[in-house]
Amino acid sequence: MPTNPTAKLTADETKAMLLATAKQMIADGLVEGTSGNLSARLPDGNAVLTPSSLPYETMTLDDLVVCDLDGNVLEGTRSPTTEKDLHLECLRVHQDIHAVMHCHAKYSTMFALVRQPIPCVIEEVHAYIGGDIEVAEYQLTGSKELGVEVARHVGDKAAVLMANHGLLTVGKHPQDCLKLATLVERTAEIVWGARALGSIVPLPESTVQRMAPVYKNYMRLY
């Protein structure tokens, strides 16, 4: 695998990174059991996805599923994640998105349950996420409607909450999505704790204006 994680990956390298990231996702406590899912764009334009209802701990490269962006299975003997439309819609609509992760991180999901955005009150969130982590309207899990709704929110942001569901991040590659999910979850916990101490003081408007273009102009580029 390239030493530079932002370098373009081969199909085999992408699959290996996806599998390693899936195992790290559950090890980091971002999901439980077989919940959550990941996908990545392959060099030929198709997508590799985690399979449905298979423990991450025992998952192998042979268990991964390759689909075209219409959801037709091209490689693999298992069924792709039941939330494939969530991933494929993001990849279809946004050519600069190359990987998608959906997880059920605890603090982020708390915000999703009360349908409150996670405010962007830390500079690094502006730089790496692009602003507040908003809440997408509720749609049934696994539905095409959920994919369409979520894809609307990641055009200029790296993360979105799904109402009554969890967190989704997009990035350059699977490891990028994992780092972003970890940042969002850490921020959600900090905001939750800060509100117990008192009122959160927002960043100065001059800082917001200065940080606003960072994600779009630098972090989003592949």
Write a structural description.
It is built from seven helices and eight strands. The two termini are 17 Å apart. The model is unreliable at 1-6 (pLDDT under 50). It has a single domain (11-219), classed as Class II aldolase/adducin N-terminal domain (L-fuculose-1-phosphate Aldolase, 3-Layer(aba) Sandwich), CATH 3.40.225.10. The radius of gyration is 17 Å and the shape is globular. The chain has 222 residues and is α+β, with helices and mostly antiparallel strands. An eight-stranded mixed beta sheet has the order 4-3-2-1-5-8-7-6, sandwiched between helices.
Outline the biggest β-sheet: 8 strands, mixed
Number of strands: 8
Task: Provide the gyration radius in Å.
Answer: 17 Å
Write down the secondary-structure element order: HEEEEHEHHEHEEHH
Strand order of the main beta sheet, please? 4-3-2-1-5-8-7-6
Quickly give the structural class: alpha+beta
**CATH architectural name:** 3-Layer(aba) Sandwich
SSE layout and pairings?
Elements: H1 11-27, E1 37-41, E2 47-49, E3 65-67, E4 73-75, H2 84-93, E5 99-103, H3 106-114, H4 123-129, E6 135-136, H5 144-153, E7 159-162, E8 166-171, H6 174-197, H7 205-219
Parallel strand pairs: 6-7
Antiparallel strand pairs: 1-2, 1-5, 2-3, 3-4, 5-8, 7-8
Helix pairs in contact: 2-5, 3-6, 4-7
